[in-house]
Amino acid sequence: MGNNPYIQGAELERYLNYRPGGFHPVHLGDKFQDKRYTVVNKLGYGSYSTVWLVRDEIQNIYASLKILSADASEESSGTELDVLRRSTTGSGSGKRFVLQFLDSFFHKGPNGTHLCVVTEVSGPSLSMYLCTLDSFDCLPLESAQALIPQLAQGVEYLHSCNIVHGDLHLGNMLYHSFLLESQENIEKYFGTPETTSLRVVPGASPLYSAPHVPRYVVYSPDHSPFLEAIFETPSLVQVKICDFSEASLHDPARPEGVKRKLNCPNVHAAPEVIFDELVSPASDMWALGNTMHQILTGCGTEGATAIPGASRCSRDQVVSEMVRLLGRPPDRWWTRWEARSEYFDEAENRICDTKENKAPEPLGIRINAPLLPPDQDEPCRK
């Protein structure tokens, strides 16, 4: 697309995603599904979707409306809908820790046809940077201890439904509380929406204009009041596992899993996902363990992952950390690792350790590791 013609606003979705095949332009007051859902605020956004607070005019309740980009809708609509419908059919204590699916439909707009998913309303993701709050510079220990068993029960429930989530990390887990069951509290904690215009670089010409691009964009709400309320009373803290865009249905007759490329952060990918691209409940358990480690060691946006590194690390860098901490992997992976010689010599010594005469760090929980803001997280190692 060439140079970005926009002056990109901070904490807002990427403006260039408003194009044919991209995001649907949404404005406050827009109505969807035969005027059943009215947009009243914005909840957030991701790489492939925007999420909105809507009022269900039939049920007279608030709900969350996730609108996928047109391209993402074509790629994932069938599997994701099958998974969401399956997630409602099981029973068990862990069901309440999975975001409740309410409805789905397709919406045709100027940028294409979009899969729209309606769920219950929840708060921000666990990856929210807590140091922005006045009262907390880290996740309270009581809250962290409460979240761990909830996540385990939620994943156990999904697996009992033969669902593999495929993308478990703090960004796909939401804070929840029964406070959000009150319509009055939803209005209180999500506040009044704020908007801003899309600014263009002087002299630049955007590739697309209305109706492909919205007249304005909406900021996500300030979640500080809600987070402060639940952290002050740890019993209010609850988690909801969300975002099933990478999920799949598991066939118990194939316990090893199925071959599928996952678009998950490399630092959370299990070895079999990296080497064989096999996806199964076991790969979820690896990611769950990494996430638990982050929660228990975390302040700021995220704690330290058990396999150190940032989400942007390459797969080779992540494998290097796995070997450093856990030792040589099975031969079927070790011999197929094409970049091995960049990290280890024939005696299986780390090249950087040999050059710098450094001993590898011991395996263990790095509770005192420095934690940085989201855009300055731990660098990749070599």
Automatic annotation (TrEMBL):
PANTHER family: PROTEIN KINASE DOMAIN-CONTAINING PROTEIN-RELATED (PTHR47634:SF9). It catalyses: L-seryl-[protein] + ATP = O-phospho-L-seryl-[protein] + ADP + H(+); L-threonyl-[protein] + ATP = O-phospho-L-threonyl-[protein] + ADP + H(+). One of its GO terms (molecular function) is protein serine/threonine kinase activity. Residues 37-382 form the Protein kinase domain. GO terms for biological process: regulation of mRNA processing; spliceosomal complex assembly. It comes from Galerina marginata (strain CBS 339.88). It comes from the Eukaryota. Its EC number is 2.7.11.1. This is non-specific serine/threonine protein kinase. Residues 356-382 are annotated as: Disordered.
